Amino acid sequence: MADTLDFEAVEVAVRRQALRLAARVVERRLNADTSDHTGPTLACACGQPARYAGRRAKRFTSVLGELTLERAYFHCAACDTGFCPRDRALGLDGTSLSPAVTRLVGVVGALVSFAEGSALLRELADVAVDPKHVERAAEALGREVAADERCVVEPGPPAEVTPTLYLGMDGTGLPMRASELEGRAGKQPDGAAKTREVKLCTVWSAESRDADGTPVRDPGSVTYSAALESAASRDTDDHPSDFAARVVREATRRGFPQAQRRVVLGDGALWIWNLAEEHFPGALQIVDRFHAKEHLSTVAKVVYGVTSELGRKWAHQRHLELDAGDLAAVVRALETHAPAHDEARKCGEYIQRNRHRMRYPEFEAQGLCTSTGVVEAGCKVAIGTRLKRAGMHWTLQGANAIIALRCTKLSGRFEDFWERRSQVRAAG
Length: 428
Fold this sequence. Notes:
About 50% of the residues lie in helices and about 15% in strands. The protein contains 15 helices and eleven strands. The strands form three sheets. It has a five-stranded mixed sheet with strand order 9-6-5-10-11, with helices on both faces. Strands 1-2-3-4 form a four-stranded antiparallel sheet. It has a two-stranded antiparallel ribbon with strand order 7-8. It has four domains: about 30-95, no CATH class; about 95-150 and about 395-428; about 160-280 and about 385-395, no CATH class; about 290-370, no CATH class.
C-alpha cells in the first residue's frame, strides 16, 4: 500500500512539473510573437481609428496552469475604449479562461453544482477555478448556447428520420430567488409563489421492442429543449417568451414534421393540446398512461386513505379498466365518489375530456408507446437533477442559461455548438 501511495505522489509531482514546463514554453512562444502590432492605428468597432498604446499583460487560466500573455493594446479616443486584437484571436476576449478551460467549465456546469464543478476541475484536471468564477463562466456560455439554439434549426437528412417520432411536453416548478417572484401568484398559504415553471419539450423514437414486443425508447434518441417560458400565444409576463416557437424548432431539428407517424404525448394539460393542434395538426395525441393512472391513484388515496388496502385494490381495478379501454367503467366508478370528493369529480372530467387520447388498446395495436416515462424522466433528468437541489434558488437569466447548457449537453449537441463557436471566433 505504501509503495502505491508513493507512486501516486510521484505521478502527481511529475505531472505538475511537466505542466509548469509546458506552460512556460507556451508562454514564451506566445509572447515572442508581436505580429498583433500591425501599425500605429487599427480600426475600432465604432469605425474610428484606434491608436497603438503599447503592450499590456493579461493573466489567464489554461489547462497548463496560469499563463501571462503580452499583447498589443489599442485605444480609441472617439469612444474612449481599448481593445487587444489577440484576445479575440485566442478566444480570451472578455474572459480570463482559455477556450479549453471554458469548455471544461461548460461541461461541469451543465452536470453538477458550481461548487462541485470547481472541485472536479481541481481534482481531475488540476485547474483552479473558484465556484463563483465557474458560475459566471458557465452561465455566460449557457447564454451563448441559448442564442445558438434559437438560430440553428437544421433538420436531419430524410434518411435519418425514423418512421415514428414522439414529441412530449411537460412543466416543472423551479425554486427562484425572491426578487424573481415579486407580484406573482402561487400555491403558498399566503398566495405567494416560491417557484416558476420550466416548460420542457422532448423528442424521441421507439422503434426498439422489449421481450414482450412492447415499444421501448431507442437508446440515444432523446433530445431536450427547455426554458422558463410561457406556453401562451401572447405572453403578458414581464419576461416575454415563446415556448411554442421552441417546440417547433426542436421538432424541426428532429424531422418530426416529416415522420410517417407523429405522436404528441402529454399529461393532459390543456396548453399541451392547444399547442399541438396549432402547430402539429394531424399528429396523434395520447395522454401518457402513467399520468392517467397517477390521477386514479390520487383519487383512491383521497377517498380511502393513503395506506388503505381497499384503496389500493380500487385503484388497481381502475388501472385494469383503463388498460382495457373500458373508460365508461372508470368514469362510473369515479361518479360514485364525486358527490363527496371533489378529487373524484375532477378526475372524471379529466378522463371525459381526454377520452379520444386514452384509446390505449387501439394505440397498442398500432405498435405505439403510450407510457414510456420519457417526458416525466425528462423533467427530472434535464431540470431536477441539476437545478432543483437543496438550497438552490435561481435568477431567471441564470436558470435559463444553465438549462440551455444542460439540454445541449444531454442531447448530444455540445460538440456541434462548440465547433460553430470556434469557427465564428476564428472568422472574427
